[in-house]
Amino acid sequence: MNLFEAKQNIDLKVVKINGEWRAHENLRHSGFGSHWRARRDIRDKGIGRRWREHKDIRDKGIGRGWRLQKKLENLGIREGVVIRKVSQQAFRGPVIIEIGNTRVAIGCFMAAAIKVEEIEK
Amino acid sequence: MKRILLMGNPNVGKSAIFTRLTNVRVIVSNYPGTTVEFTRGAMRLNGQKVEVIDAPGTYSLEPMVPAEKVAVQLLQKSDPEETVIINIIDSTNLERNLNLTLQILSKGLPTIVVLNFWDEIAHRGISIKANKLSDLLDARVVPTVAITGMGIKELKESLINARPSSFRLQEDSKWITIGKILNETQTVKHHHHTLLQGLQEVSTHPVAGFPIAIIVLFVSFFIIRFIGEGLISWIFNPLFEKLWAPVLMKISVLLNHSGFWHDIFIGKLVNGEIDFFQSFGILSTGLYIPIAAVLPYIFSFYLILSFLEDSGYLPRLAILLDRLMHQIGIHGMGIIPMMLGLGCNVPGALATRIMETRKERFISATIMAIAVPCMAQIAMVFGLLGKFGFKGLAPVFGTLFVVWLILGKIMSIFVRGESPEIFTEIPPYRFPYFTSLFKKVWMRIYWFLKEALPFVLIGVFIVNLLYSLGIIDFLSRIFGPIISRILGLPSAAIAALLIGFLRKDVAIGMLAPLGLSIGQLVTASVVLTMYFPCVATFVVLIKELGFLDMLKAAIIMILSAFFVGWVLNLIY
């Protein structure tokens, strides 16, 4: 289960943070422009640049140019920690997550790249 | 020791500590990314003058946005013999902040660790053993509350004996180390939700958030208009009409009612009297525009903006608007340059540094410069078109909003590059401290008076000079036909377009004596907003975007301004 699909206001354990190319694959055909936007993102990069970035992805796990894992880690969100999904804006808007006393807003594609599991009490 | 460098995560109070140490006033707000450029100040330590540098916030020493790059470069250039780092930590988020702290300590520079927001941890059910933390980190740890000044004295004392820490970080076991430190120093108890935390839930609620946002923005707008208009009609207008006008009339008599110097200082008399909107002398309109027409609005706008900033509402607005902003190719935080741009486009242009990619920075800077009028200009539009009420004001701001949307949409398609998603920390709501809020408002007003007043006076002077040397006549003969054919404005409006490069408020003021119809006024106001940024913004934009991108932006500006002006001319 990824964070985008997860229920709100329950403790969630981060299992894996995907930093792969097109981490939003599972959302690609779900309408509201995401497919079109994904196509455009790919089109906007020249072949050379795409190739270079692909190499980076293989070497460092950089996905869609976000360096997602690193960015999340800076805020303390990494594999194994417990987070909570606070709210989800409509129309694939940002997801707000809570870790400790910090609240972070992240985009829905990023949320989809974070694999979580529910913690049973 | 010659230099003190303030480092820390975004929104931990670096600027507040900086102000406490140096008495140099910098803008302090409650959202990550307030400081995008470093500020230098100085303090006395043991009778010795020491330079203090306030760096932008960064989450780690691997920068992600340009503002963070500035901070990391400052650290890397520091000389270990002469620099002391003050690493500021948000005590309510010890774990995340320690990540940067450990990276900084490992650099081997003398470091003091400051636990800021010390007053907030108690009612969040946290307790931190500062002494234990100090032992584990092998560095001095000082608890502070920057906004009230608690702990600043201890911080100053500890600076003298600052020394490098022996702590070295193993990158792969980083979080295990942090976990160990936390276990030994911090205990967290369960705490009850406070009223502010309840508000936090509601204001980012996917449904309830929107009516709240609309109410907040409308209330803000009405307060700005109410205070602004109130100050103008109850204080500044009477002051100018009753006290200043008679003085000017005496000077006018001394100058024999006409002549070169009379035109420059007093301007033209309208029916034998001074009209502060139309006379256009340095002492009449030149003083009236910045002080009586613009300053009240600057004051009321910054009062409200500072309140929104300090309470922490802006990032929430960014989250609510994120989906809309993605339509124009930037993520929600792009609302911050726009809001700051409403005050003055210069800080707006600087604030685009919180965006990550070139595409986002280009789009946000360009549409900000094109479609977001600054407060000085808005105030003048209010002054000129306010008498027509809704019918006069709505077309101007409505058109600008539509231009903002359409241009953004077009650019999001054609500007190459990526638009990453929003990624921002949301600070908790805080009650603004009114002393610091008013200090901030005063700083911005002072900045306006210092930077804008001379420009307005010079602008008015140049206008008069150009008129009396006949240059305006010459130019309006050449460009007049284009302007009247495309925009439907009298050829003398070329002078306003010329001066608009210097100051937009003066340019709008120059429309007053032309006797334009409401449609022409609307067209001219919109075109003057769009066609080019003022010189101050222009310089900052060149610095932020680079020469080539600025050239592209300028072409977009001029073309879109004339296109929109032409459309408006067709409508009216």
Short summary:
In chain A, 31% of the residues lie in helices and 24% in strands. By secondary structure, chain A is an alpha+beta fold.
Task: Supply the key terms.
A: about 120 residues; alpha+beta; five-stranded antiparallel beta sheet; 5 strands; about 25% strand; B: alpha/beta; six-stranded mixed beta sheet; two-stranded antiparallel ribbon; 24 helices
Into which percent range does the helicity of residues of chain B fall? 55-70%
Strand runs of chain A, count: 5
> Largest beta sheet of chain A: what is the strand line-up?
4-3-2-1-5
Largest sheet of chain B: 6 strands, mixed
**Shape of chain B from CA axes?**
elongated
- Distance between the ends of chain B: 67 Å
Radius of gyration of chain B, CA atoms, in whole angstroms: 26 Å
- DSSP helix fraction of chain A: 25-40%
Between the first and last Cα atoms of chain A, what is the distance in angstroms?
18 Å
Describe the structure.
The complex is a heterodimer of chains A (121) and B (572). With 121 residues, chain A is of the alpha+beta class. Helix content of chain A is 31%, strand content 24%. Chain A has helices at residues 34-43, 47-60, 68-74, 108-113; strands at residues 11-17, 82-88, 95-99, 102-106, 114-118. The model of chain A is unreliable at 20-36 and 42-66 (pLDDT under 50). Chain B has a six-stranded mixed beta sheet with strand order 2-3-1-4-5-7, with helices on both faces. A two-stranded antiparallel sheet of chain B has the order 6-8. In chain B, α16 (375-385) packs parallel to α21 (504-510), α16 (375-385) runs antiparallel to α22 and α17 packs parallel to α22 (518-530). The longest helix of chain B is centred in the middle third of the chain and has 46 residues, at 209-254. Chain B is elongated and about 80 Å long.
